[in-house]
């Protein structure tokens, strides 16, 4: 069971991660940071996200989850001390109770509608402690915010 379960996402200013459930994300500016941070660690994604990524993520063991999967069972298969939940909204929501950290990179877009960061029934609030800010593209105001979840 990993000690750290990290949500990592590119979000719009109004809190969406995609315009629709099968969008190939081409607006994110933090792909190289995503690659650096996730390299060598297991990644968990939903079946929709799997359909939208162009190729498998080399160097990372991928767990693709479907609706019947239990998050605890998936996590129990992971022997490394850290893993990343890489989306989408339904999958972030599925793992919400198991997350320990949140890494979000706000992007200069307002979609108005789309896939929210947490897509599920029943709103759950989470308290966060700020850890650090990582510069991605200072000129365009792109920074990754890292938080630890207060349990
Ligand atoms: N901006 C970012 O950082 C970022 C990151 C990742 C993904 N995305 C985007 O997010 C979008 C995908 O997000 P998503 O939330 O649609 O999908 P997802 O979390 O990738 O996958 C959907 C998951 O929900 C399950 N599911 C589908 N319908 C359900 C239902 N009615 N009840 C319960 N579970 C259900 C699916 O299982 P079944 O297979 O059994 O249907 C699957 O496990 C894509 O556009 C992708 O590009 C953005």
The CATH superfamily label reads: Dihydrofolate Reductase, subunit A
Query: Termini, distance in Å?
Result: 17 Å
DSSP helical segment count:
4
Give the rounded overall mean pLDDT: 97
pLDDT < 50 runs, ≥5 residues: none
- Element-level helix/strand string: EEHEHEHEHEEEE
Bound molecules: NADP nicotinamide-adenine-dinucleotide phosphate
| Rg over C-alpha atoms, rounded to the nearest angstrom | 14 Å
Which CATH C-level class is it? Alpha Beta
Report the helical percentage.
Answer: 10-25%
| Structural class estimated from helices and strands | alpha/beta
The CATH topology assignment is: Dihydrofolate Reductase, subunit A
Tell me about the biggest sheet?
A: 7 strands, mixed
Instruction: Give the overall shape.
Output: globular
Question: Could you tell me the number of beta strands?
Answer: 9
**Proportion of residues in β-strands:** 35-45%
Give the strand order of the largest sheet, numbering strands 1, 2, ... along the chain: 4-3-5-1-6-9-8
Q: At CATH's second level, what is the architecture? A: 3-Layer(aba) Sandwich
Oligomer: single chain
Integer tally of domains:
1
Descriptive account of the structure:
With 151 residues, the protein is α/β, with parallel strands linked by helices. It has one domain (4-150): 3-Layer(aba) Sandwich (Dihydrofolate Reductase, subunit A). Helices cover 17% and strands 35% of the residues. It has helices at 31-38, 47-52, 71-76, 89-94; strands at 4-12, 16-18, 43-46, 62-65, 82-85, 101-107, 115-116, 127-137, 142-150. It is globular. Residues 9-10, 17-18, 21-23, 25, 28, 45-49, 52, 65-67, 86-91, 115, 119 line the site of NADP nicotinamide-adenine-dinucleotide phosphate.
């Amino acid at each position: 069971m990993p000690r750290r379960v990290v949500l990592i996402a590119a979000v719009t200013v109004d809190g969406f991660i995609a315009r629709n459930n099968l969008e190939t994300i081409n607006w994110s500016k933090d792909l190289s940071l995503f690659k650096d941070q996730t390299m060598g660690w297991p990644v968990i994604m939903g079946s929709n996200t799997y359909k939208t990524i162009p190729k498998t993520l080399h160097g990372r063991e991928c767990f693709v989850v479907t609706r019947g999967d239990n998050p605890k069972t998936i996590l129990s298969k992971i022997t490394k001390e850290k893993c990343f939940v890489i989306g989408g909204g339904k999958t972030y929501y599925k793992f919400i109770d198991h997350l320990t950290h949140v890494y979000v990179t706000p992007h200069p877009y307002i979609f108005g509608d789309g896939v929210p960061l947490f897509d599920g029934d029943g709103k759950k609030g989470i308290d966060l402690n700020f850890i650090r800010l990582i510069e991605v593209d200072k000129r365009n105001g792109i920074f990754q915010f890292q938080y630890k979840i207060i349990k």
